[in-house]
Amino acid sequence: MNPVIQAQGLERDFVMGDTVVRALRGVDLRIDPGEYVAIIGPSGSGKTTLMNLIGCLDTPTAGWYVLDGEKVSAMDDDSLSHVRNEKIGFIFQTFNLLPRATALDNVALPLVYADASRKERRAAARRALERVEMADRTDHRPDQLSGGQRQRVAIARALVTRPAIVLADEPTANLDHKTGEGILQLMRMFNEQLLTTFIFPTHDQKVLDFADHYIGIEDGRVR
Residue 135: what pLDDT? Predict the structure, then answer.
């Protein structure tokens, strides 16, 4: 099986005045298709920097990174934008839904950048909302939904393009325990049914309990 994520020697330096901060120091990484992986580490460990590289939001200072067969570490910004939209789904703890848009339009948004027709976008968004049991909330705006319902809409939006990986940044942080557990079970179900790789940077023990395994990072190195 070819890995969905493979990286070797990833380094990321940030220049701050006369100081160079080495956020990542030679990270090697392999994640296979369909894995459910947590990434853990204390504040300042390099966890966020690593997630930004995995999510194609940044490029490494050194080393290489291949995502779903494409060497993204050498791509320019336009190419990275295309990869993000096509191969990566994002789920955020603050949901990041457009406040004046309906659930249907929020879910359909990634397909706008994929040049799908309006009919195709809305059909795909409806199917995605049905999968997260939100078919009866398609015309509701975020302020008409509970926190758990908003996160279900966010999950549908992340999955609507059938991405290779989904990055979920503390997706249960703003939810109560019972709702958060339901969201984790829902994502695990999609992980198993769709064989979509889920990756979670987290401090939450509940997330670790659901993961197949975890990757620890400290002082810019995988431990």
Answer: 95
Number of CB atoms found within 10 A of residue 204's CB: 17
Q: By the 8 A CB rule, do 101 and 141 touch?
A: yes
Read off the tokens for 148.
């758990």
What does the alpha-carbon distance between residue 109 and residue 126 come to, in Å, rounded to a whole number? 12
Handedness of CA 158, 184, 70, 20 (dihedral sign): positive
DSSP character string of 161-202: T--SEEEEESTTTTS-HHHHHHHHHHHHHHHHHH--EEEEE-
Q: Per residue in 164-205, pLDDT tens?
A: 999 998 888 888 989 999 999 999 999 999 889 999 988 778
pLDDT at 8: 97
